[in-house]
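Assess the record.
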Amino acid sequence: MKRLLCIIATMNSGGAETFLMKLYRTLDRTKYQMDFCVNLREENFYEKEISNLGGKIYCIPPKSAGVKEWKEKLTDIIKTNRYDYVLRITSNAAGFMDLMVAKKAGAKITSARSSNSSDGTGIKAKLIHRLSRVLYGKYVDVKFAPSDLAAEYTFGKNSLEKGRATILHNAVDLDTYKFYPQEREALRKEFGLEGKLVVGHIGRFMTQKNHKFLLEVFSEIKKMHSDAVLLLVGGNGNLEGEIKQRVVDMKLQDDVVFAGVRSDVPQLLSVMDVFVMPSFYEGMPNTVIEAQSTGLSCVIADTITKQANITGLVEYLSLDESAEYWAQKSLEAAKKERKETKQDFINAKYDIESVTKEFVRLVFGEEN
């Protein structure tokens, strides 16, 4: 059996983590196994499932806590367990450091997967990021990303154009991510949303997701449609408390539902009438892909790659447009009937089976 060590900050319910778990569940685990190296000491969201699937999860301090200890512990994990295959999930080129350690510890094939099209960081961090790109060629054997923007940001435009970086889609299990009419009604009753127009969003409470503008948009929607409710799914993020207080300050506390981190995302997407995402940047948002798989119309920022529009259900708007304009477009999208999208996903090779085969080819260097 070939074992792959995946290095990632946490295995919570974020987009990159969810992408890995979709692959992990689909892999032929008699041939391949995935283990995870994280920095979060508390129990991770996917930790029990990883264990049930036969995987291991290691916890080491982040680089920020001390480079020496981080390097020693990562080296020990790779050497002791003889990992030939190591994958780093990263949103910037500095991820090469983990793979440099992996190579020196004996890994034969190292891979990097870009998870974002920006870090939203300052000038110093961006300079380090650009300089780090140069070292990817030395320590990284395989480069892939979920979109053109994510590939260009982490690996450079030249790498993508010359085929040194590959696009690997954020796949969906089409048997799971579909429209659930019965669950829609049951969950609407659970959350007190019967007869409401439900505006939905899924994402951590962090600057990238632009929740402040989302609340402005929803406030305008309320003026146009008094029965509208905003359903926010997800948790964590350093702005969660601030966003909750902002809801109170805007007197929207009776109209905004904080659902928290949930495992029934397909069913919650079925509850929604429109999905709105005004992010400042994204690599390839899993949630927009998943929303389309349930036939849900999406209104998203034009900062997000056009490759996210698999089904024709996505409308892109500029963040320079007013909240009122976003509200009008969101209400127009909410009126559209749900569309059957399974064949669109298969045609575009966004089904989990196709993507898992490509993942095995890239990371393990063989056909599945």
Remarks:
- The first helix runs from residue 15 to 26.
- The CA atoms of residues 295 and 339 lie 5 Å apart.
- The chain has 15 helices and 13 strands.
